[in-house]
Amino acid sequence: MFARVVWLVLRKDLMVEVRSLEIAYTTLFFAVSCVLVFAFALVREGRAPEDGAAGILWISIAFSGTLALGRAFERERQSETLRALLLAPAPRPAVYVGKLLGIVALLAAGEVVLVPLVALLFQAPLFDRPVWLATILLTGTIGFSAVGTLFAAMLVRARSRDVLLPVLLYPITVPVIIAGVRATTTLLQPELEVEVLRFWLALLVCFDVVFVTLALWTFEPLMTD
Amino acid sequence: MPKWFVPAAVVCAVMMAVAPVLIANAPYESTMGLVQKIFYVHLPSAWVFLTAAIVCGIASARFLFGADPRQDRLAWAAAELVVVFGIITLVTGPLWARKAWGVWWQWDVRLTSSLMGWMVSVAYLLLRQFGGPGSDKLAAGLALFGMANVPFIYISVNYWRTIHPTTSVVPTLPTSFGLPLWFSAVAFMLLFVLLLKMRVRLEEQRARLDSLYLSADA
Questions:
Q1: What are phi and psi of B170, to 5 degrees?
Q2: Quick check: B135 contacting A, CB < 8 Å?
Q3: Along the 225 residues of chain A, how does pLDDT read in single tens digits?
Q4: For A182, nearest residue in chain B (alpha carbons)
Q5: Domain hosting residue B55, numbered range
Q6: What pTM, to 2 d.p., does this model score?
């Protein structure tokens, strides 16, 4: 039952998205503009600052992720489909997990384009350790989306939700940004410090576990009128 | 107002008036000199800041799962005090740091986690102010997430860098330094309790007024 609801919600979200590609195109373009703005701000004499690539990558993910979260739930608000989804005789946590997986899939698709772009523009050796990089990106994205999905869902009913989402989201996701940027910076060093990398990955995994659990636990009371 | 409120307010006012005298008479610290006296304001306000945040978090969790409006009013009042005492802490800290460390701000673990905790409470108030109907529950959720976030910020920044003096020095302080510190800590804590009580009462009366209006309409 649980897995089935998760799959149905995920399939619905992906189907709506694949048919219009609205969020994918707009957030991807926004992320690319973000990278370019940082390139203009930071590049000196044609060279990018040493470990700037990691920071720029994560800032672009966080900013475009906020945009995607806002749009994904705005779409659910327009014809009150979120209410319909919550009225369905399905476990609420399953609805949350379905939504979360949809957002993670969307952001992961964006990262597939974003990472090569950052590697290219900032001459960062991001592809030297692809498995580590993929793990860091995935755990970081899950952590960011776990908080973001819950907040975006609960803000659907609130006034001035567009402004409030980033206001609430960024202070809470600071550990993801710190750990993501530090771990990615470690990857960019010529000598790989596995100990340091393990620490940041462990922190990201703990963050994911705690915040997904907390979100599953609070989704029900938060989404009840 | 409860019976204890006025006497407690008088005691608090007297303590707040006496504290500067005690602080002025405390001996000069040998290396930092006059600027060390900021610590008599900084540390008590930081303690109140932390206490208020804990009160807000617990009351929010209880509101979210118990739906008792009294807990919500308590959480709101505490969140406002987190912001107020947070500002005192975050202003007095850099004033001291400029002299002691040579810089206004360091991305140290205590500084960063205090700043992020303060940001969360400001976000809480913004949500309550501009979130419209139903924002009480959303704010409670935010406070709960903010609480869960503290250890993560602490660990991540701690691994990154730390230079802030630890509080383990406090029990070892000589009496000449310790007395003014504990005195102002008690004064600040009393002030916190009084402000909290007053703020909760204001919200209670607002709620009562609202229900009276509703019953008058009916």
A1: -60, -50
A2: yes
A3: 899 999 999 999 999 999 999 899 999 999 999 999 988 888 787 777 777 889 999 999 999 999 999 999 998 888 888 888 888 888 999 999 999 999 999 999 999 999 999 988 888 888 888 999 999 999 999 999 999 999 999 898 888 888 999 999 999 999 899 999 999 998 988 888 888 899 999 999 999 999 999 999 999 888 876
A4: B160
A5: 40-162+183-207
A6: 0.88
In a domain, B78, yes or no: yes
Residue that has been written with the tokens 């230079």 in this structure: B163
By the 8 A CB rule, do A204 and A140 touch?
Answer: yes
Alpha carbon of residue A14 to chain centroid: 16
Q: Would residue B30 count as lying in a domain?
A: no
State whether B144 and A163 contact (CB < 8 Å).
no
B160 touches chain A (CB under 8 A): yes
CA distance linking residue B214 with residue B207, whole number of Å: 11
Distance between CA atoms of residues A2 and A93, nearest Å: 8
Where in chain A are the domains? 2-222
Residues 38-77 of B with CB under 8 A from A: 64-65
Residue in A31, A9, A209, A172 with CA at minimum distance from that of residue A101: A9
The DSSP code sequence of A16-31 is HHHHH-HHHHHHHHHH
Residue that is written with structure tokens 């900084």 in the block: B42
- The SS3 assignment for B138 reads helix
Size of interface A-B (CB pairs under 8 A): 89
Residue B90 lies in a domain: yes
Q: Is residue B34 part of a domain?
A: no
B140 burial level (CB within 10 Å; 0-12, 13-18, 19+): buried
How is B41-85 classified by DSSP, letter by letter? Answer: HHHHHHHHHHHHHHHHHHHHHHHHHH--HHHHHHHHHHHHHHHHH
Angle of helix B69-100 versus helix B135-160 axis, rounded to 10: 30
Residues of chain B in contact with residue A182, where contact means CB-CB under 8 angstroms, are 156, 160
Measured distance CA(A100)–CA(B25) in Å, rounded: 59
Counted domains in chain B: 1
Taking CA atoms, what residue in B is nearest to A218? B141
What radius of gyration, in Å, describes the C-alpha atoms of chain A? 18
Distance from CA of B20 to the nearest CA of A (A): 36
For B44-75, give one letter per residue: b (16+ CB within 10 A) or e: bbbbbbbbbbebbbbbbbbbbeeeeeebbbbb
